[in-house]
Amino acid sequence: MSEQVRDVVIAGSGVAGLSAAVYAARADLNPLVLEGDEPGGQLTLTTDVENYLGFPDGVGGMELVQQGKEQAERFGAEFQYGSIESATFDSQPKELSLSTGETLRTRALIVATGASARWVGADGETALMGNGLSTCATCDGAFHRGDDVVIVGGGDSAMEEALFLAKFADTVTVLHRRDDLRASEIMATRARENDAIEFAWNTELVALHGSSEEGVTGATVVSHPDGYPAAKYADGVDVEVSEIAVGGVFYAIGHEPNTDFLRDTPVELDDSGYVLTADADESWATTETAVDGVFAAGDVMDHAYQQAITAAGMGSMAALDAEEWLNSHLAAASETAASVPAEADD
User: Residues 48, 57, 140, 238: which is the catalytic one?
Assistant: First the structure.
Protein backbone atom coordinates (compact mmCIF):
# COMPACT_ATOMS: atom_id res chain seq x y z
CA MET A 1 0.00 0.00 0.00
CA SER A 2 1.25 3.46 -0.88
CA GLU A 3 1.91 5.62 2.20
CA GLN A 4 1.09 8.77 0.25
CA VAL A 5 -2.38 10.22 0.74
CA ARG A 6 -3.75 12.01 -2.30
CA ASP A 7 -6.07 14.98 -2.08
CA VAL A 8 -8.07 13.70 -5.03
CA VAL A 9 -8.02 10.69 -7.32
CA ILE A 10 -10.00 10.78 -10.57
CA ALA A 11 -11.18 7.42 -11.89
CA GLY A 12 -11.50 7.60 -15.67
CA SER A 13 -9.73 9.43 -18.48
CA GLY A 14 -12.59 10.27 -20.81
CA VAL A 15 -13.78 13.83 -21.30
CA ALA A 16 -15.37 14.03 -17.82
CA GLY A 17 -12.25 12.78 -16.10
CA LEU A 18 -9.95 15.01 -18.13
CA SER A 19 -12.06 18.08 -17.47
CA ALA A 20 -12.05 17.28 -13.75
CA ALA A 21 -8.28 16.83 -13.94
CA VAL A 22 -7.76 20.25 -15.52
CA TYR A 23 -9.85 22.00 -12.86
CA ALA A 24 -8.41 20.02 -9.97
CA ALA A 25 -4.84 20.58 -11.13
CA ARG A 26 -5.38 24.31 -11.55
CA ALA A 27 -6.66 24.33 -7.95
CA ASP A 28 -3.30 22.82 -6.85
CA LEU A 29 -4.95 19.57 -5.75
CA ASN A 30 -2.31 17.49 -7.60
CA PRO A 31 -4.87 15.00 -8.94
CA LEU A 32 -3.98 11.48 -9.95
CA VAL A 33 -5.98 10.22 -12.92
CA LEU A 34 -6.53 6.49 -13.24
CA GLU A 35 -6.77 6.00 -16.99
CA GLY A 36 -8.74 2.76 -16.83
CA ASP A 37 -8.31 -0.30 -19.00
CA GLU A 38 -9.31 1.70 -22.12
CA PRO A 39 -7.72 5.16 -21.77
CA GLY A 40 -9.78 7.96 -23.25
CA GLY A 41 -13.16 6.29 -23.01
CA GLN A 42 -15.79 5.98 -25.71
CA LEU A 43 -14.75 9.15 -27.51
CA THR A 44 -11.69 7.37 -28.84
CA LEU A 45 -14.08 5.24 -30.94
CA THR A 46 -15.42 8.34 -32.70
CA THR A 47 -13.54 9.31 -35.85
CA ASP A 48 -14.77 12.92 -36.07
CA VAL A 49 -16.41 15.12 -33.44
CA GLU A 50 -18.23 18.06 -34.99
CA ASN A 51 -20.43 19.23 -32.11
CA TYR A 52 -17.79 20.02 -29.48
CA LEU A 53 -17.53 23.76 -28.84
CA GLY A 54 -14.37 25.44 -30.11
CA PHE A 55 -13.63 23.16 -33.06
CA PRO A 56 -15.50 24.67 -36.05
CA ASP A 57 -13.92 22.20 -38.47
CA GLY A 58 -14.41 19.23 -36.16
CA VAL A 59 -11.79 17.24 -34.29
CA GLY A 60 -10.90 13.58 -34.07
CA GLY A 61 -12.08 11.84 -30.93
CA MET A 62 -8.61 10.55 -30.13
CA GLU A 63 -7.10 13.98 -30.80
CA LEU A 64 -9.58 15.69 -28.47
CA VAL A 65 -8.77 13.23 -25.69
CA GLN A 66 -5.02 13.57 -26.21
CA GLN A 67 -5.22 17.37 -26.14
CA GLY A 68 -7.24 17.17 -22.94
CA LYS A 69 -4.63 14.94 -21.34
CA GLU A 70 -1.82 17.28 -22.35
CA GLN A 71 -3.76 20.24 -20.95
CA ALA A 72 -4.26 18.48 -17.61
CA GLU A 73 -0.60 17.45 -17.45
CA ARG A 74 0.45 21.03 -18.14
CA PHE A 75 -1.21 22.06 -14.87
CA GLY A 76 0.31 19.19 -12.91
CA ALA A 77 -2.12 16.28 -13.15
CA GLU A 78 -0.54 12.83 -13.02
CA PHE A 79 -1.77 9.84 -15.02
CA GLN A 80 -1.51 6.18 -14.13
CA TYR A 81 -2.69 3.08 -15.98
CA GLY A 82 -5.21 0.91 -14.17
CA SER A 83 -8.74 0.83 -12.86
CA ILE A 84 -10.38 0.47 -9.45
CA GLU A 85 -11.44 -3.08 -8.60
CA SER A 86 -12.77 -2.36 -5.11
CA ALA A 87 -13.04 0.60 -2.76
CA THR A 88 -13.32 1.13 1.00
CA PHE A 89 -15.09 4.29 2.07
CA ASP A 90 -15.73 3.60 5.78
CA SER A 91 -12.67 5.51 6.95
CA GLN A 92 -10.60 8.51 5.98
CA PRO A 93 -8.54 8.41 3.85
CA LYS A 94 -10.45 6.23 1.40
CA GLU A 95 -8.71 3.13 0.07
CA LEU A 96 -8.78 2.08 -3.58
CA SER A 97 -7.61 -1.35 -4.71
CA LEU A 98 -6.42 -1.24 -8.31
CA SER A 99 -6.29 -3.77 -11.13
CA THR A 100 -2.49 -3.42 -10.96
CA GLY A 101 -2.43 -4.80 -7.41
CA GLU A 102 -1.62 -1.42 -5.90
CA THR A 103 -3.68 0.22 -3.15
CA LEU A 104 -4.13 3.99 -3.22
CA ARG A 105 -5.28 6.27 -0.41
CA THR A 106 -7.14 9.48 -1.14
CA ARG A 107 -9.21 12.05 0.70
CA ALA A 108 -11.58 12.66 -2.23
CA LEU A 109 -12.58 10.57 -5.24
CA ILE A 110 -14.16 11.66 -8.51
CA VAL A 111 -15.83 8.78 -10.34
CA ALA A 112 -15.75 9.43 -14.11
CA THR A 113 -15.57 5.85 -15.32
CA GLY A 114 -18.26 6.35 -17.98
CA ALA A 115 -20.65 3.85 -19.47
CA SER A 116 -19.94 1.28 -22.15
CA ALA A 117 -22.34 0.94 -25.06
CA ARG A 118 -23.66 -2.56 -25.56
CA TRP A 119 -22.47 -4.17 -28.77
CA VAL A 120 -24.36 -6.71 -30.83
CA GLY A 121 -21.50 -9.15 -31.30
CA ALA A 122 -21.72 -9.13 -35.09
CA ASP A 123 -18.76 -10.19 -37.19
CA GLY A 124 -16.67 -7.20 -38.25
CA GLU A 125 -17.95 -4.76 -35.64
CA THR A 126 -14.62 -4.31 -33.86
CA ALA A 127 -12.82 -3.29 -37.05
CA LEU A 128 -15.62 -0.98 -38.20
CA MET A 129 -16.50 0.76 -34.93
CA GLY A 130 -15.92 4.45 -35.63
CA ASN A 131 -15.75 3.76 -39.37
CA GLY A 132 -19.42 3.72 -40.30
CA LEU A 133 -20.49 1.84 -37.18
CA SER A 134 -21.48 4.05 -34.26
CA THR A 135 -23.20 3.94 -30.89
CA CYS A 136 -24.24 7.62 -31.02
CA ALA A 137 -26.50 9.01 -33.75
CA THR A 138 -26.29 12.51 -32.28
CA CYS A 139 -22.52 12.36 -32.63
CA ASP A 140 -22.25 10.79 -36.08
CA GLY A 141 -25.60 11.10 -37.85
CA ALA A 142 -24.63 14.16 -39.86
CA PHE A 143 -21.89 12.15 -41.59
CA HIS A 144 -24.56 10.03 -43.28
CA ARG A 145 -26.46 12.56 -45.35
CA GLY A 146 -28.16 10.73 -48.21
CA ASP A 147 -27.09 7.28 -46.97
CA ASP A 148 -29.21 4.25 -46.28
CA VAL A 149 -28.56 3.43 -42.63
CA VAL A 150 -29.55 0.77 -40.14
CA ILE A 151 -30.27 1.17 -36.45
CA VAL A 152 -30.36 -1.80 -34.09
CA GLY A 153 -32.74 -1.64 -31.14
CA GLY A 154 -36.37 -1.37 -30.14
CA GLY A 155 -36.55 0.93 -27.13
CA ASP A 156 -37.06 4.66 -26.70
CA SER A 157 -33.39 5.41 -27.34
CA ALA A 158 -33.55 3.52 -30.65
CA MET A 159 -36.63 5.48 -31.71
CA GLU A 160 -34.99 8.77 -30.74
CA GLU A 161 -31.88 7.84 -32.70
CA ALA A 162 -33.97 6.76 -35.71
CA LEU A 163 -35.89 10.04 -35.72
CA PHE A 164 -32.63 11.99 -35.51
CA LEU A 165 -31.04 9.98 -38.33
CA ALA A 166 -34.11 10.54 -40.51
CA LYS A 167 -33.09 14.21 -40.75
CA PHE A 168 -29.95 13.22 -42.68
CA ALA A 169 -30.21 9.72 -44.10
CA ASP A 170 -32.15 8.75 -47.20
CA THR A 171 -33.69 5.77 -45.39
CA VAL A 172 -33.45 4.48 -41.84
CA THR A 173 -34.18 0.81 -41.23
CA VAL A 174 -34.81 -0.28 -37.65
CA LEU A 175 -33.75 -3.87 -37.01
CA HIS A 176 -35.62 -5.44 -34.10
CA ARG A 177 -35.34 -9.01 -32.96
CA ARG A 178 -39.03 -9.22 -32.05
CA ASP A 179 -42.24 -8.05 -33.71
CA ASP A 180 -43.13 -5.61 -30.95
CA LEU A 181 -41.21 -2.54 -29.81
CA ARG A 182 -40.17 -1.94 -26.22
CA ALA A 183 -40.42 1.81 -26.82
CA SER A 184 -43.16 3.93 -25.28
CA GLU A 185 -46.24 4.31 -27.45
CA ILE A 186 -45.61 7.97 -28.21
CA MET A 187 -42.05 7.33 -29.39
CA ALA A 188 -43.07 4.27 -31.39
CA THR A 189 -45.86 6.23 -33.08
CA ARG A 190 -43.55 9.07 -34.03
CA ALA A 191 -41.11 6.63 -35.63
CA ARG A 192 -43.82 4.69 -37.46
CA GLU A 193 -45.30 7.90 -38.87
CA ASN A 194 -41.96 9.08 -40.28
CA ASP A 195 -41.80 8.22 -43.98
CA ALA A 196 -38.02 7.82 -43.91
CA ILE A 197 -38.12 5.11 -41.23
CA GLU A 198 -38.76 1.46 -42.03
CA PHE A 199 -38.94 -1.54 -39.71
CA ALA A 200 -37.46 -5.00 -40.19
CA TRP A 201 -39.24 -7.15 -37.63
CA ASN A 202 -37.86 -10.40 -36.16
CA THR A 203 -34.53 -9.47 -37.72
CA GLU A 204 -31.02 -9.23 -36.32
CA LEU A 205 -27.59 -8.18 -37.53
CA VAL A 206 -24.95 -10.92 -37.67
CA ALA A 207 -22.15 -9.42 -39.79
CA LEU A 208 -20.85 -6.08 -41.06
CA HIS A 209 -18.96 -5.54 -44.31
CA GLY A 210 -16.54 -2.80 -45.30
CA SER A 211 -13.15 -1.49 -44.25
CA SER A 212 -11.61 1.32 -42.26
CA GLU A 213 -10.96 3.13 -45.56
CA GLU A 214 -14.41 2.63 -47.12
CA GLY A 215 -16.45 2.50 -43.94
CA VAL A 216 -19.49 0.25 -43.68
CA THR A 217 -20.68 -0.90 -47.10
CA GLY A 218 -23.13 -3.65 -46.22
CA ALA A 219 -24.49 -6.05 -43.62
CA THR A 220 -25.74 -9.58 -43.22
CA VAL A 221 -29.04 -9.91 -41.39
CA VAL A 222 -31.10 -12.93 -40.38
CA SER A 223 -34.87 -13.20 -39.92
CA HIS A 224 -37.28 -15.71 -38.43
CA PRO A 225 -41.05 -15.32 -37.93
CA ASP A 226 -40.78 -16.37 -34.27
CA GLY A 227 -38.17 -13.71 -33.46
CA TYR A 228 -34.69 -13.88 -31.96
CA PRO A 229 -33.21 -15.15 -35.22
CA ALA A 230 -29.52 -14.71 -34.33
CA ALA A 231 -29.68 -17.35 -31.61
CA LYS A 232 -31.56 -19.68 -33.94
CA TYR A 233 -28.99 -19.05 -36.67
CA ALA A 234 -26.16 -19.89 -34.27
CA ASP A 235 -27.95 -23.10 -33.28
CA GLY A 236 -28.32 -24.19 -36.90
CA VAL A 237 -32.05 -23.50 -37.17
CA ASP A 238 -33.24 -22.58 -40.65
CA VAL A 239 -33.54 -18.79 -40.88
CA GLU A 240 -33.71 -16.31 -43.75
CA VAL A 241 -30.29 -14.79 -44.47
CA SER A 242 -30.09 -11.50 -46.40
CA GLU A 243 -27.32 -9.22 -47.57
CA ILE A 244 -28.18 -5.51 -47.51
CA ALA A 245 -26.26 -2.46 -48.76
CA VAL A 246 -25.95 0.23 -46.09
CA GLY A 247 -23.75 3.26 -45.56
CA GLY A 248 -23.94 3.30 -41.77
CA VAL A 249 -25.00 1.20 -38.82
CA PHE A 250 -25.97 2.47 -35.38
CA TYR A 251 -26.32 0.46 -32.18
CA ALA A 252 -29.01 1.66 -29.77
CA ILE A 253 -29.37 -1.24 -27.36
CA GLY A 254 -28.35 0.56 -24.21
CA HIS A 255 -25.28 1.25 -22.11
CA GLU A 256 -23.69 -0.39 -19.08
CA PRO A 257 -22.31 2.10 -16.53
CA ASN A 258 -18.86 1.12 -15.34
CA THR A 259 -19.74 0.92 -11.66
CA ASP A 260 -19.05 -2.69 -10.65
CA PHE A 261 -16.44 -1.53 -8.12
CA LEU A 262 -19.10 0.56 -6.34
CA ARG A 263 -21.75 -2.15 -5.88
CA ASP A 264 -20.56 -3.20 -2.43
CA THR A 265 -20.05 0.37 -1.20
CA PRO A 266 -22.47 2.94 0.30
CA VAL A 267 -22.47 4.87 -3.01
CA GLU A 268 -26.06 4.67 -4.23
CA LEU A 269 -26.78 3.32 -7.72
CA ASP A 270 -30.04 3.20 -9.63
CA ASP A 271 -31.55 -0.03 -10.96
CA SER A 272 -29.39 0.20 -14.09
CA GLY A 273 -26.18 0.80 -12.17
CA TYR A 274 -25.82 4.55 -12.74
CA VAL A 275 -24.47 6.59 -9.81
CA LEU A 276 -27.12 8.62 -8.02
CA THR A 277 -26.04 12.12 -7.06
CA ALA A 278 -27.55 14.38 -4.42
CA ASP A 279 -30.03 17.19 -5.02
CA ALA A 280 -28.73 20.52 -3.82
CA ASP A 281 -32.27 21.94 -3.92
CA GLU A 282 -35.43 21.44 -5.91
CA SER A 283 -34.01 22.92 -9.09
CA TRP A 284 -30.43 21.72 -9.33
CA ALA A 285 -28.28 18.66 -8.74
CA THR A 286 -24.71 18.38 -7.56
CA THR A 287 -22.05 15.80 -8.33
CA GLU A 288 -22.01 14.67 -4.69
CA THR A 289 -22.85 11.05 -3.99
CA ALA A 290 -24.19 9.41 -0.84
CA VAL A 291 -20.59 9.06 0.41
CA ASP A 292 -18.89 12.11 1.84
CA GLY A 293 -15.99 13.09 -0.41
CA VAL A 294 -17.01 10.92 -3.38
CA PHE A 295 -18.26 12.68 -6.50
CA ALA A 296 -19.47 11.47 -9.91
CA ALA A 297 -19.42 13.04 -13.37
CA GLY A 298 -20.17 12.15 -16.96
CA ASP A 299 -21.85 9.10 -18.41
CA VAL A 300 -21.40 7.10 -15.21
CA MET A 301 -24.23 9.18 -13.69
CA ASP A 302 -25.88 10.61 -16.82
CA HIS A 303 -28.16 8.24 -18.71
CA ALA A 304 -30.03 11.07 -20.46
CA TYR A 305 -27.59 13.19 -22.48
CA GLN A 306 -24.35 11.18 -22.75
CA GLN A 307 -22.56 13.81 -24.84
CA ALA A 308 -18.92 14.83 -24.68
CA ILE A 309 -19.80 18.45 -24.01
CA THR A 310 -22.09 17.62 -21.06
CA ALA A 311 -19.53 15.19 -19.66
CA ALA A 312 -16.89 17.91 -19.78
CA GLY A 313 -19.19 20.31 -17.93
CA MET A 314 -19.95 17.76 -15.23
CA GLY A 315 -16.25 16.98 -14.87
CA SER A 316 -15.53 20.60 -14.06
CA MET A 317 -18.45 20.63 -11.60
CA ALA A 318 -17.10 17.54 -9.82
CA ALA A 319 -13.66 19.11 -9.44
CA LEU A 320 -15.15 22.32 -8.04
CA ASP A 321 -17.33 20.32 -5.64
CA ALA A 322 -14.33 18.24 -4.56
CA GLU A 323 -12.22 21.37 -4.02
CA GLU A 324 -14.94 22.94 -1.85
CA TRP A 325 -15.36 19.71 0.12
CA LEU A 326 -11.61 19.36 0.70
CA ASN A 327 -11.33 22.97 1.86
CA SER A 328 -14.16 22.55 4.36
CA HIS A 329 -12.96 19.12 5.46
CA LEU A 330 -9.39 20.26 6.06
CA ALA A 331 -10.59 23.41 7.83
CA ALA A 332 -12.78 21.33 10.14
CA ALA A 333 -9.88 18.98 10.86
CA SER A 334 -7.64 21.94 11.73
CA GLU A 335 -10.27 23.41 14.07
CA THR A 336 -10.66 20.05 15.81
CA ALA A 337 -6.91 19.73 16.28
CA ALA A 338 -6.65 23.27 17.61
CA SER A 339 -9.44 22.69 20.14
CA VAL A 340 -7.68 19.70 21.73
CA PRO A 341 -5.79 20.99 24.80
CA ALA A 342 -2.10 20.28 24.91
CA GLU A 343 -0.92 17.87 27.60
CA ALA A 344 0.91 19.51 30.49
CA ASP A 345 4.61 18.78 30.85
CA ASP A 346 5.58 16.62 33.79
Answer: 140
- Say which of 136, 147, 302, 321 is annotated catalytic: 136
Strand partners, 86: 97
Given the residues 139, 147, 299, 302, select the one marked as catalytic: 139
SS3 per-residue string spanning 174-237: EECCCCCCCCCHHHHHHHHCCCCEEEECCEEEEEEEEECCCEEEEEEEEECCCCCHHHHHHCCC
pLDDT digits (tens, 9 = 90+) for 78-110: 999 999 999 999 989 999 999 999 999 999 999
CATH 1.10.10.10 at 125-251, yes or no = no
Lowest mean pLDDT among 60-64, 185-189, 248-252, 310-314: 60-64
Tell me if residue 48 is catalytic: no
> What's the pTM?
0.78
Select the CATH number that applies to the domain covering 5-117+255-339 from these four: 3.40.50.10860, 3.50.80.10, 3.50.50.60, 3.40.50.920: 3.50.50.60
- Do 5-117+255-339 and 125-251 fold alike per CATH? yes
- Is 238 catalytic? The answer is no
7 is catalytic: no
